[in-house]
Amino acid sequence: MGQVSRRGLLVGLASGAVASTFSITASATIVRALSLPALVQGSRRIVVVTALASESHFEDLGRRRRIVTDTRVRVEEGVAKADGVDSELLVRTLGGSVGRLGERVHGQAQLVLGEPCVAFLLRGPDGLHYFNGMAQGHYPLRGSGATSRQLARSGDLPEILDFNSSAVKALVGSELGSAGARIRALIAP
Amino acid sequence: MKRAAYLGAAGLLAALLSAPSAQAFCRTTTCDPNKPADKCQLDANRCVLAGKPLAWRSSCVTVGVQTIGSPKNGLSFDDVAPVVEQAFGAWMQADCGNGTPSIEVHMLGAIECGVSEYNSDVGNTNLVLFREDDWPYHGAESAIGLTTTRFDTKTGDLWDADIELNGYSARRLTIGDPIQGDDLLSVLTHEAGHFLGMSHSPDQTATMKAIYDPGSDGANFRSLAADDIAGICSIYPPGRKAASSSCENRHGFSAQCGVDQTPPNESKGCSLHGGAVGAGDTPASYAGLLAALVGVVGVRVARRRRIV
Question: CB B148 to CB A158 under 8 A?
C-alpha cells in the first residue's frame, strides 16, 4: 500500500450514487517527430485506403483493458511497399466506444468513412495493421483527380516535438503523385 | 433608454476586451473523432464542434503520483511530485481578470497502483505514472506522454484522468534541463491542460499548441499563454456554481489497482469493491449507492495539499 490508502475517500460520496453510467474516455499525446525517411522505412505498407466500416471492442493492452477500433479499409492504390497487398485490410486504432463506455486518444489517425487517405501502416504481432506514428502516418487526401489530390494534415495530430524535421511538414500540401515519388525514392532498390 | 442600451453594449464590449482575449483554444468534447461513424464536425481551427465540452463539474479534483517515480530517468517520487504540482499550479493560478479558475487540484501522496485504468465499480485515482517495462501501443512508440480522461457522454462530466509518461521507448525526461532531454515540466503542463478539459490550440504561442520544437520553444510550455488562460477561464470561470465541492473520485478513491480491490460480490461489509472497467459499466450505480451510504457517515478527506 502506498502512502495514501483510503484516506482520500469519502467526502460527498452521495453524488456517486446518482452519477450516470454513460462514459467515454479521451487521451492526449505528445510525440517525437518521425522524419519522412524514418516513417517510410518503418512502415510495412504505404497505400491509399478508404475506410469502409468499423467496430470497437475491448482488448488487453498493458495489463488493462482498453477500447480499440478496427476499421476495414479498401486499398485504392499502392504508393510503396504494396506488392501483394490484399484488397482490404483491417486497421486498428486506439479508442472508440463499446456500449455505454468509450475511449478516445488524441493523436490517433481519425479515419472518416468514405474518405481516402494515404496510410503508412505497421503490421502488429496480432496480424492487424496500425498507423505508424499514429496521426503522423495518416494523410487525408483533398481534391479529386489523379493529379490534383493533395495530402492534408490528419485531423487530430498530436503534439509533435521537432516538427521541422517531421514527415508531416514534408508531406502536408504535397500532391499525391510527387509525394509518392519522394516516398519511393527513399526505399532502397 | 436608447443611450442606456448603447452604454450597456459598450460596457459589455469593454468587459469582453478586458478579459483574456485570445479565443483560438479548443475544448475536448464528448464527440468521438476516432469513431468514423460519428463524423465529428471540425471548425477551421480543427476544433471539434459537436458534442458537449468536458469539464470537472466539482470545484475540486485530486491527482496522485506513482510511488516508484521513474528509475530509468533517475527520478524518485519526491522528484516527480513537485513537478506535477507545479504543472497543475500553472493552470490554477491563471489570472482570469476577476479571479482564478474555479477549480482546485489537490495533490495526493504516492500511489501504489502503476497502471492507467478506470474501474466501474471500485475506487479510482487520477494518476501520473511512468511506464518503463512496456509501452503497449503499437505505432505509438514515439509518444512521450499520453493522457487518458474518462467522462460522461451524456453530460461531459469528467470522471477520471491519468497521465502516462513513456519511460520505455522515449527520450530521457529531465527536470530543469530541457537541453539534455525532454522537459518534464513542459510535458506535464501541456498534459495537465488536457486533464482539465483543454484540447489542442492552433495558437502557436499556446502551451496547448500541437507542435512543439524544443530547439525554439525551450521550456516555454512551462507557463501559460493568453490563449491557454482564456481557455481555462472559459471552462472554469471564477464564481462558477460548481455541482459539488467534493474532491472524491468517481466510485471512491483507492490507491490500489482495481484487481487488488475486493469485488462487490465478495464484500463482507460496507465498502467499495471492484473489478476492471466493463462494457456496460452498469455496476457503477450499485457501487455509487454503497459509496453514498458510507459517505453519510461523514468520513473526512485526509491530508491533502492544495496545489495553488
Answer: no
Sign for the pseudo-dihedral over CA of A76, A132, A106, A170: negative
* Greatest C-alpha distance within chain A: 67
Question: Are the CB atoms for B119 and B251 separated by under 8 Å?
Answer: yes
pTM: 0.75
Select the residue from A22, A24, A74, A120 to test the B interface by mutation, using most B Cβ atoms within 10 A: A24
Please give the pLDDT value at position B200: 73
Mutate to test the interface with A, among B26, B27, B34, B132 (most CBs of A within 10 A): B34
Q: HSE on the CB side for B171, CA within 13 Å?
A: 16
Contact criterion met (CB below 8 Å) for B307 and B296: no
| Cβ pair A88, A109 in contact under 8 A | no
Query: Is the confidence metric ipTM above 0.85 for this complex?
Result: no
Given CB atoms, is B292 within the 8 Å cutoff of chain A? yes
pLDDT in tens, A43-74: 999 999 999 988 888 898 877 788 888 999 99
What is the C-alpha separation between A185 and A40, in angstroms, rounded?
10
Whole-number Å distance between alpha carbons of B45 and B26: 8
CB contact under 8 A, B109 and A4: yes
Q: Residue B126 is placed in which grid cell? A: 487520477
For residue A146, count other CB atoms closer than 10 A to its CB.
9
